[in-house]
Design goal:
By secondary structure, the chain is an alpha/beta fold. The strands form 2 sheets. Strands 1-4-6-7-8-9-10 form a 7-stranded parallel sheet. The structure holds zinc ion.
Length: about 350
């Protein structure tokens, strides 16, 4: 890609009120049947247009066709009962009602491939598609069959790999795996989490990314962050091994976080999507605030490998705030581009 500091978002953007209840996670659909299919496509068009209007370089579907970034994929797999729901504690943080695994996992139908083809038809820009990561999937359901997080994650990785290969064939340029669980279960990440991720990207020729954040701006996450102390060194435990992995891009939360920015040195050589937009506030960053975060990251990330991004998805925000933040991201990146070009 020729653009210096190409901008993108971590993934989700707010859904219009006519499609789903706004500012809510797991929000139920407002439409049904054929109207729902059409509504999702219309929402994708709007979401894409808003990214384009803001000047975002690497665009996405804004996750308009998914109810949730993890469960929508899981619900399409064999071996998962979506009716039989159990309440589990997600990332040791909050309770959620999730599907149950009752038998062998397999994928006999594409999940997002048609949506990706639709996005590809709408634009010639670089497109990124987000999938849940294997470890985060394991953490977002009840396992009544494998009874082993590692084994279940490996089966998910195989299903993800099949999906990823079809997304690549549909014209997706960057496939991203969302792994917020990497920030919580460090030992497991090093033991099998990264290995599962590498299984999920096996044989792909397109670029691959992993998104590791401190979560959406919901109360359970913001309360958890308050207890993390003055320095968030979670990334330190997993970066050395990630640096050696085959993943091309690492997407991180950096703005307004207590992550010591020098930790980025541990993944030197990788492309980094630097979170320069806080998704836990309604305050729209000024371009200068965005630029300031990017400048700090530039000490540890080579300019040609720095991708300005949001800390996480913006699904729970209002559309107006999300639009403002997209504009701020682009304007902040532009300030730093100018500084780099003189
Ligand atoms: Zn995130």
């Amino acid at each position: 890609m020729k653009t210096l500091l190409p901008t993108s978002t971590a993934g989700s953007l707010p859904k219009p009120a006519w499609l789903a209840e706004p500012e809510t996670l797991w929000s139920p659909w407002t439409l049904r049947d054929d109207q729902l299919i059409e509504g999702k496509q219309d929402a994708l068009r709007v979401s894409l247009q808003e990214q384009q209007r803001a000047g975002i370089d690497i665009v996405s579907d804004g996750e308009q066709s998914r109810q949730h970034f993890v469960t929508t994929f899981i619900e399409h797999l064999n071996g998962v009962d979506i009716e039989k729901r159990r309440t589990v504690r997600i990332r040791d943080r909050y309770d959620a009602s999730v599907p149950t695994v009752f038998g062998p996992i397999s994928r006999n139908q594409p999940v997002f491939v048609e949506d990706a083809k639709f996005l590809r038809q709408q634009t010639d820009q670089t497109i990124k598609w987000a999938l849940p990561g294997p470890m985060t999937m394991v953490d977002t359901l009840y396992d009544d069959y494998y009874k082993s997080r590692k084994e279940l994650a490996w089966e998910f990785a195989k299903a993800l790999n099949e999906e990823a290969k079809e997304l690549e064939a549909a014209g997706v340029d960057i496939i991203q795996f969302d792994e917020p669980a990497f920030n919580v279960f460090f030992e497991e990440v090093n033991e099998w989490g990264i290995a599962c991720l590498e299984r999920a990207i096996e044989g792909l020729k397109c670029e691959t990314a992993v998104h590791i954040c401190y979560g959406y701006g919901i109360k359970a996450n913001t309360d958890w962050k308050k207890n993390l102390g003055s320095e968030w060194r979670q990334y330190e435990a997993i970066f050395p091994q990630l640096q050696k992995s085959g993943i091309d891009i690492i997407s991180l939360e950096c703005h307004n976080s207590h992550v010591p920015i020098e930790l980025l040195e541990l993944i030197r050589g990788k492309k980094v999507m630097v979170g320069a937009i806080d998704v836990a506030t309604d305050w729209v960053e000024t371009p200068e605030e965005v630029a300031s975060t990017l400048r700090k990251a530039l000490k540890y990330v080579d300019a040609d490998k720095l991708y300005p991004c949001t800390n996480c998805g913006m699904a729970p925000l209002s559309r107006e705030v999300a639009r403002g933040k997209l504009n701020a991201l682009q304007a902040g990146a532009e300030i730093v581009r100018r500084e780099l070009s003189v």
